[in-house]
DNA sequence: TCAATTTGACCAAA
DNA sequence: TTTGGTCAAATTGA
């Protein structure tokens, strides 16, 4: 159901403006195994449920759910739940910059909270999460993307 | 062949 | 009861 202040529930908006990457959300540092899909009332698109691929049912409670927005199928709302204990994948392509789960920036738009009851923080991130330099959220390019995101976002 | 994904059903919470 | 979430089994692809 709706989890609002239930520990770690971080909602991130992802612009799926990538051909070929449409139905699949961008990969973070983790491997997700899809364990279910359900249609959500009020939304026209089903929601996909993912879980950590390694800690299937063992311990890592890391969960992730992805759902497209009603009016903007090009946008994916990725909601991360719980904390990640598994930062290591079998065949990891990343090794050094994978310190923090995702570059959850300090920039939190509470606007989403007004629109969505179950949105804690909204930090849209695009394709390049892994930069050799730094994962500093607040880059000009990112910010620009955010604006675009919000523009097409405000219609509710 | 193996593994991941798929769909449906079941269960729990509101 | 309804909606959402999870599990389980079956299927598909590599």
Automatic annotation (TrEMBL):
PROSITE patterns: WRKY. The lineage of its organism: Eukaryota, Viridiplantae, Streptophyta, Embryophyta, Tracheophyta. InterPro entries: WRKY_dom (IPR003657), WRKY_dom_sf (IPR036576), WRKY_plant (IPR044810). One of its GO terms (cellular component) is nucleus. It is found in: Nucleus. It comes from Brassica napus (Rape). It comes from the Eukaryota. Gene3D superfamilies: WRKY domain. Keywords: DNA-binding, Nucleus, Transcription, Transcription regulation. SUPFAM superfamilies: WRKY DNA-binding domain. This is BnaC06g13990D protein. GO terms for molecular function: DNA-binding transcription factor activity; sequence-specific DNA binding. Residues 27-89 form the WRKY domain.
């Amino acid at each position: 159901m709706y989890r609002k202040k239930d520990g770690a529930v971080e909602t991130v908006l992802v612009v799926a403006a990538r051909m070929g990457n449409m139905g699949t959300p961008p990969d973070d540092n983790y491997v997700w195994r899809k364990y279910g899909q359900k249609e959500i009332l009020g939304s026209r698109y089903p929601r996909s449920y993912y879980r950590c691929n390694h800690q299937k049912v063992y311990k890592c409670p890391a969960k992730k759910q992805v759902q497209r927005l009603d009016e903007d199928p090009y946008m994916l709302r990725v909601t991360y739940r719980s904390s990640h204990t598994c930062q290591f994948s079998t065949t990891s392509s990343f090794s050094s910059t994978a310190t923090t789960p995702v570059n959850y920036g300090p920039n939190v738009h509470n606007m989403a909270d007004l629109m969505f009851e179950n949105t804690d923080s909204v930090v849209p991130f695009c394709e390049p999460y892994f930069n050799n330099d730094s994962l500093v959220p607040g880059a000009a390019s990112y910010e620009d993307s955010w604006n675009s995101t919000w523009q097409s976002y405000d219609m509710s």
